[in-house]
Amino acid sequence: MKKIFTIFALFILMIVSLHAQQSPGKDHSKLNITCKTCHTCDVPTKSDPCLVICPREKIATVYQKPEETPDLITIDQISDRYGPVHFSHKIHAQMSIMSGGCKNCHHYNTSGPILKCNSCHEDTRKRDDISRPDLKGALHRQCMDCHREWSHETGCNTCHTLKKNVKEIQPDQVKKKLAGMAHPVLLEPTKIVFETNYEKGKMVTFFHDDHTKTFKIECTTCHKNETCLKCHDTKKVSDEKSKIVKAHKSLDEHHKQCFSCHKEDNCESCHLNKQAEQFDHGKKTGWALNKFHVNLSCVNCHGSKIPYSKLDNKCVSCHKEWNNENFKHTITGLQLNETHAQLNCEDCHAEKNFAIKPVCTNCHENYIYPKQKPGKLVRTK
What we know:
There is one protein chain. By secondary structure, the protein is mostly helical. The protein folds into 4 domains: about 1-60, no CATH class; about 65-180, Cytochrome C3 (Alpha-Beta Complex), CATH 3.90.10; about 190-235 and about 250-275, no CATH class; about 330-375, no CATH class. Helix content is about 20%, strand content about 5%. It has helices spanning about 1-20, 90-95, 135-150, 170-180, 210-215, 220-225, 250-260, 280-285, 300, 340; strands at about 75, 85, 190-195, 205, 270, 335, 375. The strands form 3 sheets. It has a 3-stranded antiparallel beta sheet with strand order 3-4-5, with no helix packed on it. A two-stranded antiparallel sheet has the order 1-2. Strands 6-7 form a two-stranded antiparallel ribbon. β3 (about 190-195) and β4 form a beta hairpin. The model is unreliable at about 10-20 and about 240-245 (pLDDT under 50).
């Protein structure tokens, strides 16, 4: 009886082991992901792990910079009528930055090495999961959408060479041709002035320099959905003298990017009858930056979340931990004498408001700053 019970227990253990949730591995905690990356519910269980079908774009990925990628990749997994395709990878990687980057093609790649397309897409069209394109369909779908927009044709010979002519083009020749090729560096404009039909203000001045350098907004924040078509189109008609191409967009399309940060602004904030002045912290917020703040990045005070939130301009709202022990008063240009160096900040600065003139009347009857100083002036950098 004991033997039968032991066999039965082992059988149950085997069944549980087969159906138990697999361990994610010892390196799972090192990945820069959250539970929501893989689970759709708040409390996943062994019986109902509520796993998403595939994390796709949200999963943590490790990609190389365009300049670190190979110049050329030879795609030769499919070869019936045509020879291999010599794909200029580095140039495409450079151009893809404005339209989604590496994940445009490597959309299921996780934190390991870059996977080949046939790791997920089968070579044959006869497959069990028809929701996932076969290799031929996946490769063509990636290339044809852009090429259709750019050149308005998708002829096979654009990328392929017939097998009978394949000897005429060798990878070494293509590599030599691509060596040193790169997308030209795009110069950032300082400002762009748009002419509009808005009656109360026909001019909108966009200070590109402020957005990228002062506010540290990434290019892809505004340009993430752009393709090569914006600049390269064999059928685009433009004024060659002025190099102006009129964009035909709806009202919503024109304002979508701006409204993502300027939700509370009214139309007259941007639409004027003259060119606007560049951003000035004092005029815009009513609080001019002093020498201690003028060279700081916006994120030092406002954080990285955009749009930036309004702050209380009292020093103590950011500098809560300042006291006579950790603050070097010399950086203000005034070195405190021995007596005053022992005092608390609020003994001279009411409510720790360092923006206003300090008071001496708490200890001295007839002392007025700066006529009487609690130390000596020193030169600062």
